[in-house]
Amino acid sequence: MPLRKRLITVLTFQDGVLFRTKQFTPDYRYTANFIDAWSVDEIVALDVTRTGGGIQTAFLDVVGNLAKSCFVPLAAGGGVRTIEDVRILLDAGADKVIVNTGAIDRPELISEIAYSYGSQCVVVSVDAMRHDSGAYEVCAAHGKRETGMTPTAWAQRATELGAGEIFITSIERDGSLEGYDIALCRQISDAVSVPVLICGGAGNWQHFADGYTEGGADAVCTSNIYHFTEASIRSAKMFLAGRDIPVRA
Question: Which of 201-206's residues contact partners 24+ apart within 8 Å by CB, and which partners?
């Protein structure tokens, strides 16, 4: 039996308020009191607050409330710089932590988390910018700082250091509803042996299918699509099952 594919909902917060984003810029606020009706497999909660340092108090409240009310695995990230930040998020109710800039600046953070809590606990987020030449580059600091690293090289190094999953986002596709960057996803999925989560650009169910069949993703992630349509993850799963893609019930 092949491993079941996952559908993951991504929720982005700024100062404790839920937003959608477009090219990594908060766009407008909305509520998510319908989240339990989505048949979602997992939740990713990301804090995009750009002021202050470390884990934000408002975001800890968000994580705690999600953990109490949504009974699926919860991954949380935003401002994770130290193993103490990880402990704080896990104590608040997260099952996994997502690291991005903190791991780029200090890669050994990945190994520290894997050693203390297991590789299944650490998800490395890779924000990728596509240049006019077609080459991809990893960006840090909410997509604002270029690093000189390719997504493939960084994903490989992250897994060597202990990352249990790679969460890849195309900066240009974020909020576009035009489909995932399949070439980017395929580069990463071919380069690493751990699950790859693709995010940024889903606008319809076929985009989900493309992420799996063409991109090689183990999970597809989205948020914005649900706030423009009557869509639900349940109907997405029916669509995918009809195309012989094994998804979780």
Answer: 201/170, 201/173, 201/174, 201/175, 201/176, 201/177, 202/177, 203/176, 203/177, 203/178, 203/179, 204/177, 205/235, 205/236, 205/239, 205/240
Q: How many CA atoms lie within 13 A of 245 on its CB side?
A: 25
**b/e code 75-94 from CB counts within 10 Å (16+ = b):** bbbbbbbeeebbebbbebbb
Examine the pLDDT at 31 and tell me if it is beyond 50: no
The domain limits of the chain are 6-241
CATH number of 6-241: 3.20.20.70
Output the pLDDT for position 228.
45
Rounded to two decimals, what is the model's pTM? 0.90
Report the distance separating Cα 59 and Cα 47, nearest Å: 7
In the block, residue with structure tokens 């090689």: 216
pLDDT of residue 37: 45
How far apart CA 173 and CA 92 sit, in angstroms, is 31
Query: How does pLDDT run across 89-121, given as a tens digit for each residue?
Result: 999 999 999 999 999 999 999 999 999 999 999
Distance CA 147, CA 163 (A): 19
Query: Higher pLDDT residue, 35 or 12?
Result: 12
Selected residue with higher pLDDT from 245 and 187: 187
Could you tell me which residues come within 8 angstroms of residue 160 by beta carbon, excluding any fewer than 6 positions away?
Answer: none
